[in-house]
Amino acid sequence: MNLNQQPHMASPYAPPQPGYQMYPQPGYGAPHPTQQYAPYNGHTSLYQQGAPPAGYSPYSGFATKTYAANVLSDSFSSSPPNLGQGRAPPVSGAPPVSASDSYSQYAQGNVQNGPPSVPSQPQRPPVSQSYAPATVHPGTQPTYHQPYEAPTTSVQQITGHMAGMHIGGPAPNLAGSTYAPPPSSQPMSSAAFTSTGPPNYTPQLASASQPPSSMSMTPGPPPSMYGAPPTSQPSFPGAPTPPQSAFAGVTPAAPPVSQQSFPTGAPMSQPHYSSVPTSSSQPSMGGPVLQQPPFGAVPPASAQSQFPGAAQPPVSQPSPYHSVPPAAAAGFPPPGGATVTAPPRHPGMQGPPFANQSMSAPPASQPNHTGAGMPPGPPIGGVQGPPPQPGLQGFHPQQNGAFGQMRPPQSGYAAPYPGQQNFGIQPPPPAAAPPAQKRLDPDSIPSPQASETQPVQKTRHRIDPDAIPSPIQVIEDDKANKGSEPFITGVRGQVPPLVTTTFQVKDQGNASPRFIRCTAYNMPCTSDMAKQSQVPLAAIIKPLATLPPDEGPLHLVDHGEGGPIRCNRCKAYMCPYMQFIEGGRRFQCSFCSCVTDVPPHYFQHLDHTGRRVDCYERPELHLGSYEFLATVDYCKNNKLPQPPAFIFLIDVSYNAVKSGLVAVVCEELKTLLDHLPRESVDEESRIRVGFVTYNKVLHFYNVKSSLAQPQMMVVSDVSEMFVPLLDGFLVSVGESRVVINSLLDQIPEIFADTRETETVFGPVVQAGLEALKAADCAGKLFIFHSSLPIAEAPGKLKNREDKKLVGTDKEKSLFQPQVSFYGNLAKECVAQGCCVDIFLFPNQFVDVTTLSVVACSTGGSVYKYSHFQAQTDRDRFLNDLRRDVQKPMGFDAVMRVRTSTGIRATDFFGSFYMSNTTDVELAGLDSDKTVTVEFRHDDKLSEDTGAFMQCAVLYTSCSGQRRLRVHNLSVSCCTQLADLYRNCETDAVISYFAKHAYRTVLSSPTKNVRDVLVNQCAQILACYRKNCASPSSAGQLILPECMKLLPVYLNCVLKSDVLQPSAELSLDDRAYLRQLVSCMDVAESHVFFYPRLLPLQKLDVEGDALPVAMRDSEERLSRAGLYLLENGLNLFLWVGSAIPQDLLHNVFGTASFSQIDPNMTSLPVLDNPFSKRIREIIESIRAQRSRYMKLMVVKQDDRLEILFKRFLVEDKNSSGGASYVDFLCHMHKEIRQLLS
Amino acid sequence: MAMFQEFIQQNEDRDGVRFSWNLWPSSRLEATRLVVPVSCLFTPLKECPDLPPVQYEPVLCGRPNCRAVLNPLCQVDFRAKIWACNFCFQRNPFPPTYAGISEVNQPAELMPQFSTIEYIIQRGPPTPLIFLYVVDICLEEEDLQALKESLQMSLSLLPPNALVGLITFGRMVQVHELSCEGISKSYVFRGTKDLSAKQIQEMLGLMKPAPAGQPGRPPAAQEMHFFLCRFLQPVHKVDMNLTDLLGELQRDPWPVSQGKRPLRSTGIALSIAVGLLEGTFPNTGARVMLFTGGPPTQGPGMVVGDELKTPIRSWHDIQKDNARHLKKATKYYEALANRAAANGHCIDIYACALDQTGLLEMKCCSNLTGGHIVMGDSFNTSLFKQTFQRVFSKDYNNEFRMAFGATLEVKTSRELKVSGAIGPCVSLNSKGPCVSENEMGVGGTSQWKVCSLNPSTTLAMYFEVVNQHNAPVPQGGRGAIQFVTQYQHSSTQRRIRVTTIARNWADVQSQMQHIESSFDQEASAVLMARLAVFRAESEEGPDVLRWLDRQLIRLCQKFGQFNKDDPASFRLSESLSLYPQFMFHLRRSPFLQVFNNSPDESSYYRHHFMRQDLTQSLIMIQPILYSYSFYGPPEPVLLDSSSILPDRILLMDTFFQLVIYHGETIAQWRKAGYQEMPEYENFKQLLQAPLDDAQEILQTRFPMPRYVDTEHGGSQARFLLSKVNPSQTHNNLYAWGQESGAPILTDDVSLQVFMDHLKKLAVSSAA
Question: Quick check: A658 contacting B, CB < 8 Å?
Fold first, then answer.
């Protein structure tokens, strides 16, 4: 410590301050001005140490751990001068207290050698340090990035200070608030934190002395969680003191354990360490901090917490949540604290390490911090290593918050910033290192770390991936908890089971989650609250969702000639929320409060409870979802609609013919036409069909039943499209069967010898549109298209793919259509109710962006089959086509979402067109399409009445009946943020975020989009931490139970191909994915972003349960395994190179690994239960998804594996996506920055 | 006189030529004083059974701007093997093939009886005939069915090697591809968008025979052929296909809401037909046959909007300048017609509808290209069916009575120049020494294009005597005119028919008598009528009548014998005696009177008047009336109301109508059924007689006339009553209730009144 401090002092002071200030401004600026600075500085410095700073900023991206390593190195380099010290810091090794140099060495050692260094250092210290660093970095780093430069020095210092620093830093932030609560200890911690911050800087110097002061300080701060920080800051101001205080704080935290740590850390580093130890409990926080470092190792986090816990546990427990947090806080200093907390949560974590302690602690703490548990193991690093995971796991359960934090730092950052952070933490590293490494070693193989410096790795390792919140765990828990009982919708504001859980729904007045899922089921009462929490308020609505047989179909209500009964003012439809008054003669609208007379024919007496006597006889009075029969007033031109039509438009240019597409489509249509959607009462579908083929001219076909042969009508005038015939173009399949078959037989022959390579596209859509116009009906176009439309015609496009633009500010132009023609055309289509589905079969660039505009605005879908070859892609295409043709759908739809006064639907996402701000116009709406609606407050909501929303969709059914489908949903309203956080759905939030981000790329550079996303999530979590979590050390990452997966999922979104493309990804692919996501439902977006990975090697061939999924990380793949991975679009079968012979034989029927044909698209049909079961599983998975997935067999180390690896979303990827652990660290850092 | 009549008849039989004057006044001044210009009716393809075509090419005069054909009027030096052109006096050597020529071994073209001779040209590949059906499918089901049957039937009438194509139109225009097997294929065009020929060809895929990317393959002739033929196929190859295709034609499927006319894109359909042929077979004989059942209602060339509440334009509207689309549409069709004519393609219009179909606007398509116009009430009438069948009638050589892509060239001797032609032709703008500056009809050229000809197609040619008074023609001098008609025979051969005629010059001073007796009043009446009708197309009706009256009065003044101011003394010689009567009926004819006729009818009548030969033209001017009675054999009677007697059956032939009119008594008898009684067999025969005669006329006439069987008091009797001279009207009371004749309720002047006025004006010294 002293040493560290000194170092700091030396350079630090001068530099530090600047640096700090710098930092402060960035991160803290707002929060605590000058005073804070001190503290912050401290923190910052701490953070800086995380210093990752320097590294960070660059890496902000979280680069992978490797980066971290680099970062570290970078930071070092940058700060070189400081480095000396800085390194020391990093060294957290500094912790070793030894001179800065030593530290630096250590640091380095830690970082890189982490372990080794650690050794030198006190064991724990290191650990703690590591944590701290890790955590710190995470948190700070983000903010710091900027600072970093300066920070660098500071960093070093920090690192040096690490111990103290971290502690201090973290403490300030979190600690302040959380910790404070933590009680006495906390106070301490908080103080510590605050002080810590300073400590680090000045601190370190003063640290020793300060501690005390800090102690005092802390007390102050603690009280008011937040206040604490400030106070701390103040203290900081007193730079020296603060630091001290910080330390003190640390110590305080440490006290418990910390004291010990202190001892070790005594001065600088020790503080950390010591603190860590001490921190072990809240105090641990403090202690934790130190420990945390250790924890740093993510798992550790939990572990740490635990550890701390161990030490702290007690303490933490005392103040459970907070305490934990405290831990976290402690962590702060060294995130470690956080980690500690985390651990708790992650039960898994760490428990082990801390396990015992932490475990115990966790439990206690868990409540609060569950998340906190996180203990970011990172810091824990050392500690964590082992323990963490266990602990974490154990903790996880707890959840709340703990986890995350700790881990995050570690994970994400660790790696990335990692380096630095770690460094900062380094101390810990050292300590942690050993452990970490150990783990690493195990993991090392997979670990990205390898890439970079060991340190990084170590750091990373410090955070045990198992210690951080596991999506799989959450999913399985939900299955276990909610899968068995039916979900009854009657209760307002309850969160439905996750989309991954199979459950039954009983409609008792609210729409089934199959129709509507919300991001939050407890809406904040005021917009201020909403703003503060930053939790998006959105509903993801799938109006025509298919229900399982035991839940459907919806009741059809006919209110007679007058049409559905509605509120006079807001026009809301009759629903269970309407209040009947005056003996049933009038009803009051629950949306706008307007009172409306009940029409005489609808009158019914009320019973003693004020409910209508016929309440349970009328679906609209007691169900959440039902349909009304619409009257002629609800029809276009006041005319009952005609049955809709399907028009198939087939590209017959050279490419399409050659790839076999034309033959495949024609052959399939012959049978497919017998399965057009129909009402259950109809013998055969009333949908009419028409056929068009085209290359650069269009061929329409007259297939009137009276003809012996179809007639082809060529329209060459593509500049002004028109439909050449009416009668005979759209026909009933039943009547014209023979002629249609004859046509479909002949089309491939007619064009077999074509040499026409140019195609048109605009006129094709126009043709379908005109046909529907002429027939005066709504309908759907199925366009099978092969190439960029370059023939002279409206909507002609040019090849504009330019990879050089990727990553630049001009990138957004790639997502914008190159001509406005299609937008205007889409408008016309919508007006006519012409839905467009596009099947693309490109061999090269086709400009999906531009072509898909029509589909995206008309409620249509885009399918893309690159390099289509009939033999290999036939199944996929045909299955998609079949499903697309057969799926239930509505036409010419208009959707309107009405809400209670107080909120308003303000934004919509999906495939539709809006000509005003309220009506969502969908030319077609099928059972897979979702519309996401975002709500904003325009007034206050009442906690008593809750909030209502009614989604009404007016559409034409496939038989031409005009109907209104109404979904009602009521949610609760809350005045406590905690309620909000307790009742939200992460999957929905992520789905919303993704859709929002994917739309924003149209107007902002992707980097900004990513930053905004990270920022918003950080705010959400920070708000929770600040307002809901029990006080704990700032270093602790505390996540709300409902959102503990937010970071991992968010990371998946950030790394997705649209936001962070790999180099080989084509513009078309990105555009394709972009539009796909916009209308995904929650289940689809969930698996899309977090693919499902199923281990198959130990398959239970007898049962019919799917194996439990695994986390998407390469480390978890066994060379002797066989895994299935799917994300709704792709399906991979990964075969390990050491796959056992019998498995090989059973599944592939081959004798050796090398004989597996990587081009196979389906598994050989072998007569053994294993093969059968695998194929069953594949089929069942395909059946769950709206698009058929072609099976790709990926052999380990084969070239295809690169592709496959992109889907292992917990790992960092080649295009710069952070690993889960790294990202978590980063997140943590962001949060801490926000909190400070 | 008899001498001249005989001469005239002989000349007509041999050469198909009737001159207004058969002695020509020898000076310009005198010629103008004769009122009726030196002019002739020329029937280029008059059927001459005793005229075998010769299988070699004509010998032409070597002078570049003469190029006259060797003819019997040329002086020949058999020894020197030289002939002198009788038009330019150039001396030309005979070609080597004529080496054996001598007084006793003369080629046919030198024999006097071969003043008209036909050469068959062997050069060049034979080009097939092309028939492109352009069919309106906005018809009533029944009509469409009838039309489809007629079209299917026509396939068997076409020359087997002829190319046939099909375009249908309604709201859209479809060009049917005939070459494909299995699925029938057509190219569709929007009916409202005018396309240039190039665009049409592009869209039909006629521009780029081979799609890009066929390296190394020259656009082989075969390939070209394929592409050219996708829409036009030899009848023998596709008649089955086409029969099926026609059989499957549906009515235009686009709904027509109440109060609307179907949308009919006639303008675009024609444009595409013209464009298609233009791109594929320029300068080849082709017939575009438009079958339409109503007015064009959209796109360029529209005649009336689709709102039924807006009636199609009437003469009244036109006079008031209320016809919105008239000028535009007319201009559009004129442009089309000119394009077609330039490529030698002709356009027929078969318009069958109760209402007007826009013939007024579209008439030029046929008028300028020599196509037919047939107007009927429905495609499901024998009028249309028979007429259409008759388009493909054959002559005694079993060859189609049609020829294509003709150019008619006129050469004159020095004293004469050609002023113009009136008939189904367009000017080729060929200036030459024999072209007069004074234009009459289509002038300013010595060559005309006649895209389609049949043996009765007759052009009126007008000449100007340019010889000056002070340069008398030598005694016995003759003026000569040579008509050279090159055309594509229906057998696809190119042929050249040369008619060379000569007339004596006469000095007006000394030979007035002769000149007067050489006057061909029939021919003159028709020639003057053509001039009048030609004027009527562009001038106001009253102006034309005034002009016509003026000419008549001047003629009467010139040739009448009278005492000044004494109308009673007025006399005309035999050779002019009928002329005023012709003029009287001409004035009342639908060619000059639009009252009671729609613009379409007027156009239709004028169209036929401008192309029929002299006999038919005269019938049009002054219908023929036969009377059948128990008192004697059928006899021609005066076209006068006095001929309408109760105990007569009248048969009137106006060319366009055949009216059988049963007198009051006859009608009562018939109603009583006497003809069924054996003892009244004679009555039955009497009833039958006019029917048989009518049948005979119906058999031969093209287009088939409207056949009307009516009786006294019948509504259809108006056809007769409107034609006869109203000698008895409600105004001259003495006729009331008398046995003879029937009064006509009209204010029109009678022939008697007309003649009285004419005499008065002719003898008036004031005139």
Answer: no
